[in-house]
Amino acid sequence: MRAPAALLSADGVSKHFGGFVALEGIDLDILPGERLGLIGPNGSGKSTLVNCLCGTLRHDSGMITFAGRKLDGLPAHQRTRLGLARSFQLPKPFRSLSLADNLRVPLLYAVNARPGARLSRAAVAARAAELLADVGLADKRHRLPRELTQVEMRKLELARAVASAPRLLFADEAMAGLSPSEVEEILAVLFRLNAGGITIVLIEHIMRAVMNFSTRLVVLVAGRKIADGAPEEAMRNPEVERAYLGE
Amino acid sequence: MIGDAAFRAGRFWAVSFVVAVLLLLLTRAAIQNEYFFFAAYVVLQYVVLATAWNILGGYTGYINFGIGAFFAVGAYCSVVLHKLASVPVPVMMLAAGIASGIIGLGMGYLTLRLRGVFFAIATLAMAIVAQTLIVNWDFVGGSRGIYIIRPQHAPFFGDYVEYLYSLMLLLSWIAIATARTIERSRLGLGFNAIRDDEAAAEAAGVPTLRLKLIATTLSGALMGMAGAPLPYYVTYLDPASSFSLSYAVNSVAMPVIGGMTSWIGPVIGAVLLGTIQQVATVTISSALNLLIVGLLLIGFVIVAPNGIIGLIQSRRRARGAR
For the whole model, what pTM was predicted? Predict the structure, then answer.
């Protein structure tokens, strides 16, 4: 039975690219405050699902609601303003802007676009500095993204997503290519954000991190959802074992 | 505070206006040679075109090769108004700005889902379509062109060429102050985000389509305004020269040479390149103009790909790091 208080609901979401079925009838409820792990082999449709939910791609059929509001047809920037944020699989910093200016973009365009919210110039600068300090980049706020290390780039990506003051954050492979200690750093940031009230969907291949972080696990294979439940239980699902380990 | 930003922008508008007025008074008082005003008009025209191009091309990263279309639409707008009613040139400039702005908005709606080279080709195609329409429009002279008799004198200004020069100086001030205001504003930050990564900008809450339409409209309007006095400057207007690709080449080359990330880059590029071209026209040959542009472009792409401003900024950064 579907929980009535879902923050985001996807009902039968499908997406095709020509003859290729990327997503097939995905039903998904994300509850407020939860830490959801979204896993699946390469090409299983994880990023396509995130792109459809965030408005980067238009789904072909099905319905998406967020906080009781239908999102179908809404452009990505309006979904961000409603409280849906994402980080990208490959970091996409604004390369010509300083780190502080990278964060000013969502503060001015997402937060200040909300009814009743009007951060002053000083408040925007203070909030950007605070967010950079939260991820350990305070002393680099005037630097350009090209001067950052890989893990710092990932942190900037998360800080920029969080700057839009989201209720739900999709962290798309935020730990890809990082060392074990750097993975722990990013996990710590995600735990802190979740403790601060942000619902987080972690799309990740690093199973240790996913199992450590998630309170629920959703598994996609070939565009279909094959498991949804407690992480250990989901991983014991025969279809999941088959998808990951073969016959 | 937002009030501070508005105050700083207002101060720039005021200071730059005073500079423009002083420049106007000084040049008109000190220089008697009429050719100076002919040449300076062209340089200022390129200051406007390069600045206008940079609002879309430099700030948002969308390369527009349809400059000739906006510029010529402005010029032909004046021809239509000249034939229909006797209105002053500033009114023609306003009308040309509105017409070209609307065309910019339309072009934006039709082409802004394209990116990179596809967008550039679409804008070039638009220029060809506009030229074909003008060639087949008899009212404005069609392919044979049209003569416009330039009055000898303008009220309060004396010589008419000096009057056109003054108008172009005023328009340069408007274009520069507009570009600088955009650059320092929330709008400019959104433009930069689009240039750096459009998907990330959209995900950060930037209404990318709306901002790009603002850029195409503003850029187109300023280009049209720059073209409006052209019939009175050249006294003979035909599609081949008014839609000339050299306007596009120069308007792209000037910001590239000066630097595309700042309002001052296109101004430096236009003054530098425009002056060199004018000097070369008088001392050597006008046929050398595009060769000069080409050589300078090659040189800058190799030595300073971010233009003169980029070169200065990187030197400053290197000095700061030492």
Answer: 0.91
Q: What is the span of the domain harbouring residue B22?
A: 2-244
CA distance A55 to chain B (A): 9
| CA distance to partner chain B, nearest, from residue A126 (Å) | 12
Burial status of residue B123 (CB atoms within 10 A of its CB: 0-12, 13-18, 19 or more): buried
> Closest residue of B to A78, CA-based?
B205
Is the pLDDT at B11 greater than 60? The verdict is yes
Is residue B293's pLDDT more than 90?
Answer: no
Q: Structural domain tally of chain A?
A: 1
Question: Structural domain of residue A187, as residue ranges?
Answer: 8-245
Q: Looking at the domain assignment, is residue A1 inside a domain?
A: no
More confidently predicted of A118 and B26: B26
Say what percent of chain B tops pLDDT 70.
Answer: 98
Amino acid identity, residue B40?
A: A
> Are the beta carbons of B203 and A54 separated by less than 8 Å?
yes
User: How far is the C-alpha of A157 from the C-alpha of A99, rounded, in Å?
Assistant: 10
Domain membership flag for residue B309: no
- Dihedral Cα B28, B34, B38, B41, nearest 10 deg: 0
Sequential DSSP letters for chain A: ---TT-SEEEEEEEEEETTEEEEEEEEEEE-TT-EEEEE-STTSSHHHHHHHHHTSS--SEEEEEETTEE-TT--HHHHHHHTEEEE-SS----TTS-HHHHHHHHIIIIITTSTT----HHHHHHHHHHHHHHTT-GGGTTS-GGGS-HHHHHHHHHHHHHHT--SEEEEESTTTT--HHHHHHHHHHHHHHHHTT-EEEEE-S-HHHHHHH-SEEEEEETTEEEEEE-HHHHHH-HHHHHHHH--
